[in-house]
């Protein structure tokens, strides 16, 4: 296999440190819970968060309505009630889509007014019937300008429907958010700004060989066109990493050549799994402050990930730059002691 560079999947930029949020902001300290992770909802320490995303609902390609699989229905229907047992003030959002969902189904739904309406109306009904406080869109892999234009129409119509539902029922408005790529590339800025309460910037799993790291991505959102206000951006923190097979065990820094993934078929490991690997293999841990990320190595196995140092640096970046907050993907990948979740809160 052709050699790859370990920096292919870096998670962060060179983040500077500062210790205060902008005055008056309602800070978002959030995490996604993934039904596919198998992590029990009652085991979530909701006291460490202000918002939790229940992931994922999907879209029915025939009706364009939002659906929850039969395997997930029981956990989704009690999600809010369960996490509020430990934190009565926690806000929950139903997340729709995800990386495994069909991008073509979302593109088809968003292409016409009547199919957008089916999606929107069903999402609001589903959120209300399952006691969620909001809705989150994770439509990934948008590849054309017409798709991004239709995304803007979807968001505008979703906002109008959410406002109308609240006015007619007297219910508090549902929150609206969307998970978007680490950098903006022709996304409908004005529709995003006017329609969403915030955007979750997925500042991880991107190609650092482009020379484009996390801070570049944030600036691409705030400086594009009229720009998204920084206090509408929520920075993504990965609670996972990637393992690679070193070409040379003695060359183990960032950008060292690798021959392919290690440990698992795609190399992806949760933070708890990484800690177990470090313990079992007596791996050497390194925090590279210049890059703002962690890695460990044992023999020819190298893992890039975020540990407490880089998590704290990213949260400090959020504070310094007036971002609304952070979110983690995903809560079930943390270790049993909730080490990364606690590091993010400063506890």
TrEMBL record:
Where in the numbering of this chain does the GH18 domain appear?
27-347
Q: Which InterPro entries match?
A: Chitinase_II/V-like_cat (IPR011583), Chitinase_insertion_sf (IPR029070), GH (IPR017853), Glyco_hydro18_cat (IPR001223), Glycosyl_Hydrlase_18 (IPR050314)
Annotated SMART domains: Glyco_18 (SM00636)
Q: Name one GO cellular component term.
A: extracellular region
Keyword vocabulary terms for this entry: Glycoprotein, Glycosidase, Hydrolase, Signal
* UniProt xrefs under PROSITE patterns: GH18_2
Looking up Gene3D superfamilies in the UniProt record yields:
3.10.50.10, Glycosidases
Q: Which residues form the signal peptide?
A: 1-24
Q: Which GO terms describe its molecular function?
A: chitin binding; chitinase activity
| Any GO BP annotation | chitin catabolic process
Q: What family does the entry list?
A: Belongs to the glycosyl hydrolase 18 family. Chitinase class V subfamily.
Q: What is this protein called?
A: GH18 domain-containing protein
Which species is listed as the source? Gossypium barbadense (Sea Island cotton)
């Amino acid at each position: 296999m052709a050699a790859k560079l370990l920096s292919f999947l870096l998670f962060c930029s060179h983040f500077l440190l500062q210790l205060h949020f902008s005055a008056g902001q309602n800070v978002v300290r959030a995490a996604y819970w993934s039904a596919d992770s198998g992590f029990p909802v009652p085991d979530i320490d909701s006291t460490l968060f202000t918002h939790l995303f229940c992931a994922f609902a999907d879209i029915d390609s025939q009706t364009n309505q939002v659906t929850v699989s039969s395997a997930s229905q029981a956990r989704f229907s009690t999600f809010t009630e369960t996490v509020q047992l430990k934190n009565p003030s926690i806000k929950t959002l139903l997340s729709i889509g995800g990386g495994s969902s069909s991008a073509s189904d979302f593109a088809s739904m968003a292409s016409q007014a009547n199919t957008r309406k089916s999606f929107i109306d069903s999402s609001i009904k589903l959120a209300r019937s399952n006691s969620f406080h909001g809705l989150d869109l994770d439509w990934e892999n948008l590849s054309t300008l017409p798709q991004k234009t239709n995304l803007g129409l979807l968001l505008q119509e979703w906002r109008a429907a959410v406002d109308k539902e609240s006015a007619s029922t007297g219910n508090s408005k549902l929150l609206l958010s969307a998970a978007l790529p680490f950098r903006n590339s022709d996304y409908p800025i004005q529709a995003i700004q006017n329609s969403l309460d915030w955007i979750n910037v997925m500042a991880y799993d991107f190609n650092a060989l482009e020379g484009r790291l996390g801070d570049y991505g944030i600036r691409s959102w705030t400086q594009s066109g009229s720009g998204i206000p920084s206090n509408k951006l929520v920075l993504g923190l990965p609670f996972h990493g990637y393992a690679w097979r070193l070409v040379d065990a003695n060359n183990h820094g960032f950008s060292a050549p690798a021959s392919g993934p290690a440990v698992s078929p795609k190399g992806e490991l949760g933070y708890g799994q990484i800690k177990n690997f470090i313990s079992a293999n007596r791996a050497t841990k390194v925090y590279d402050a210049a890059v703002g990320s962690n890695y460990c190595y044992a023999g020819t196995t190298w893992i890039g990930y975020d540990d407490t140092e880089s998590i704290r640096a990213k949260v400090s970046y959020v504070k310094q730059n007036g971002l609304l907050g952070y979110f983690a993907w995903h809560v079930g990948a943390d270790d049993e002691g909730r080490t990364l979740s606690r590091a993010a809160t400063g506890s």
